[in-house]
What does this fold into?
Amino acid sequence: MEKKQIIKKICLLGDGGVGKTSLIGRYVLNCFSDDYIVSFGTKVSKKVIDYDEVQLTLMIWDILGQKSQKALHGAYYNGANGVLLVCDNTRPETLLNLPEWKQDLEKVVGPVPIVPIINKTDLPSALGTEDLAAVREAMGADFLLTSAKTGTGVQEAFERLGRQILGVPS
Ligand code: G3D
Ligand code: MG
It folds into this structure.
């Protein structure tokens, strides 16, 4: 039986250097193509996930370079069906900036599924318990721990977002 085919756009947001490009590289190059198109200063990678009922094609948008939040234009967020919000386990300010990233996103696309990620968990944590609790509250979702370096949690993060976009239980 032919599976239903669905195509969705996702973005990775978070401060420069948190590991957005590394997470995409780990996820996409480990399994499938390095198919991409370059436009608007972004790189778009494609990845297909097979769920039981559905084949989901993720178009994964990455910002090229280290543009600041303010410099990001609407074209990047526009039409996003879900977002990975990424911070760095070793830099508390990247955690504290996540709520602002979320607000900026929602100004453009409204509420969409979000998976908050703490990346670089192969390194010792510098994040405070209270900060974590506060940001978790602001995100309305639990953090997933990843390491683009070792691969821990990376596939799970993208697949969790995919399931949330499709509205299927995790
Ligand atoms: P960005 O796309 O969010 O700006 P990058 O971040 O993917 O460019 O990563 C920034 C730096 O962090 C890179 O190091 C990269 O290798 C490193 N990095 C990314 N993910 C991890 C991780 O999970 N663990 C560790 N230890 N390092 C990570 P350089 O030295 O190239 O700047
Ligand atoms: Mg990058």
Summary: Residues 20-21, 62 surround magnesium ion (ligand 2) (CB under 6 Å). The domain at 4-166 is CATH 3.40.50.300 (Rossmann fold). Helices lie at 20-31, 74-77, 92-96, 98-109, 129-139, 154-166.
